[in-house]
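Replying to the earlier thread about multi-chain prediction with a worked example.

Input:
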Amino acid sequence: MSTKVVITGLGVVSPIGIGVPQFWKAALEGRSGISAIPSFDPFPLEGYRSRVAGRIPGFSLEQYLPAGQGDRVDRYAQFALVAAKEALADADFRMEREEPHRVGVIVGAGMGGMVMGEREITQLYEQKRPHRVHPNFIPVITLNSASGIVAMAYGAKGPNLTISTACSSSAHALGQAMHAIRAGTADAVIVVGADASITPLVFAGFCSLRALSTKYNDMPERASRPFDRGRDGFVMGEGAGALILESLTHAKKRKARMYAEVAGYAATSEAHHMVIPREDGEEVAITMRLALKDAGVTPAQVDYINAHATSTTVGDAVEVKAIRLLFKSRADKLAVSATKSLVGHTLGAAGSLAGIVSALTLTSGQIHPTLNLDDPDPACALAGLSAQPQTRKTKVALINAFGFGSNNAAVVVKSLST
Amino acid sequence: MAKTSDVSDKIIQALADYLKRDAASIQTTHHLRDDLGLDSMAVIEMLYRIEEVFNIQIPDQDLVGLTTVGQVIAYVQGRVAPLKAPAKIPAKAVAKAPAAKRSTKSKKA
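Result:
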């Protein structure tokens, strides 16, 4: 019997709220965090095919952290610090009572420090003064700056890793943290997913990839519409999610409140195409099946799926095809929701937000609505999808996450009352 | 003003360069995916070149009608010479392209 791994703390920085209570209230109310991008100054906004995003305007680090802490890292790492702080407090996890080398940090980040990265690259090429590249440029754009700063801020000296698999990054971070605890290399892991790259270059790149929604620039709140017939691409978001994972033994020893168990995980590659998923859904179905097997649960026991559901035409349909392949007649009995309909696609943060939503769903029995499901697409219809909040007893949740590079992840989260 | 043949030659040449094959082997009736083997990402890369050659921006919603070489030529001709040529893709061409299957919005993301 392998070590059980439980979730004991949650933290969120999102377009619909900073802090878990605000986030979850807004999610259940079906509030959209998508708004018009006011400017990419000095670049003309008309040059961007998509002009909507799930932004966090007015975020100020000083509001959440002591002065000086985190002012040398990029926006995504600042989000990570704030989310981790909340999660540690939520778990009542006190580092002074821990053996620091037994506490790890695993961060999932897709793009990393692009705010400073873009600025420095632009300045170098414009001004041609290499000696004026900022001394902090390298530490900031190095992709493990968030995992580094989180460890420094909170004194976690155990395994410190960053996983970058694009949109599935923090689903893998959750899974790898579970593995580290199961393997006995850590008692607890601070898992964070973070990205903040609604920046002129990255955003333009996603526009050029024709991956973003462009039809709803005048109706931002309607742009992210997973599974709806009118969907036309994803909406980029920013944010961070943090979860404290620890062994059941460790959590019990310190009498921690437990949300749920991270019970299973699978990581696969479709070995197919950099950005296009296999249209038959076979590989996604295999990934989900492997995660369920790892968790020791059957498809018949699954109650809820937090879908990857980015609101792209093909991606959403492939996911539903895969769900039908694996779950067969049970597919229409599952409750399903698409968190990206609320906050957009937060890239590296997406898997961690899905983990947080799953933990809250399992403990509350409340399933957040999937926004803009006005005209469900028959190609990806599931009876358990709803534009309204649902209340259902849920004991087993499955998280899907797919990333560029032909990358798939699935994570199983179980109620502790089973 | 760009002549149809100029547009056609430039597009076929751009395709030939992209596909690393002889321009003479590319027909206007060729389907980008089924005949030339372009997947949705390759179509986007090819259109990116064409946007540069003709100094135009192709909105995402127009991509759905661009599934054959002939449709791309007609579309670009309409965009570069709006007063002399039909600005819209011929209705027939649009009708031929089933939306979901041919869409380029197929990213995993």
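The interface with chain A takes residues 39-41, 44, 48, 57, 59-61, 63, 100, 103-109 of chain B (CB under 8 Å).

Feel free to reuse this layout for your own posts.
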